[in-house]
Amino acid sequence: MNKENILGIDVSITSYEELKNNIEKDIKNNKKSFIVAINPEKILKARQDEDLKNLLNNATYQIPDGIGVVYASKIKKGKITSRITGIDCMDMLCNLANEKQYKIFMYGAKKETILKAKENLIKKYPNIKIVGTVDGYEKDNEKIIKTINKSNADIIFVALGSPKQENWITSNMDKLCVKIYQGVGGSFDVLSGNIKRAPKIMQKLGLEWLYRLIKEPKRIFRQLKLIKFLFLIIFNKKSK
Ligand code: UDP
């Protein structure tokens, strides 16, 4: 898959359809793949942290999750034209699993959140096979690995927040039999109904960040980083 480098981090140039086809091939070929969602905050963090940078660049698919990544590509006259959000990618994988009977494991978030998220996923995809769940506060990693391997899952969603979930995936992938790994951040909270996503129109206009800011004003400190990120993009472009 083609990738575009944004401030040192590779981002996949893809559509949901292409990504879906690739994932299906990976499952059929028994190939392990790691999907990581890229946003400006992660790119800035990775500029200061070589390990995080390598981890992100070594993932199989780096999806352009944040609208800032799309803006950056536009400024650099790149080819990334729209977001592939972590939660929509997760939904696409659930749809695929529902269709092809791939087995899903959910790891992360609070016990009641994960159970409600599972229940809602089953309501949406009646044929989905969710073969196991472990909440994100279980301490015994050996036990977690055993439970996941026993489930024979094909796809795992890990919701521990970033970069904890990405670190967990890369440190444990070798011990696991699962094929597709995705870090999904707060997606179980959204699926459970605890947190609402922005209205569709705001998502389409690239204003999901504004909705989240209104709902959680303390996100301002995280979101201000977007301005720094865009400055860096513009400056880098001019210096070329
Ligand atoms: N979480 C967890 N275990 C931990 C820390 C966090 O399961 O040790 C969960 C937390 O309950 C929440 C999610 O990870 O469901 C973090 O979501 P957040 O929106 O912070 O993730 P982001 O996408 O911003 O990284």
Mean pLDDT comes to 94
Hetero ligands? uridine-5'-diphosphate
How many helices?
12
CATH level 3 topology of the largest domain: Rossmann fold
Taking strands numbered 1, 2, ... along the chain, how are they ordered across the largest sheet?
Answer: 4-3-8-7-5-6
Number of domains: 2
CATH C-level of the largest domain: Alpha Beta
Rounded radius of gyration (Å): 18 Å
Helix-strand sequence: EEHEHHEHHEHEHEHEHHHH
The major β-sheet equals:
6 strands, parallel
Spans of at least 5 consecutive residues whose pLDDT stays below 50 are none
Basic shape: globular
Brief summary of the model shown:
With 240 residues, the protein is of the alpha/beta class. It has helices spanning 16-28, 40-48, 50-57, 67-75, 86-100, 111-124, 141-151, 164-172, 187-192, 200-204, 208-215, 220-238; strands at residues 3-6, 9-12, 33-38, 61-64, 103-108, 129-134, 155-159, 180-183.
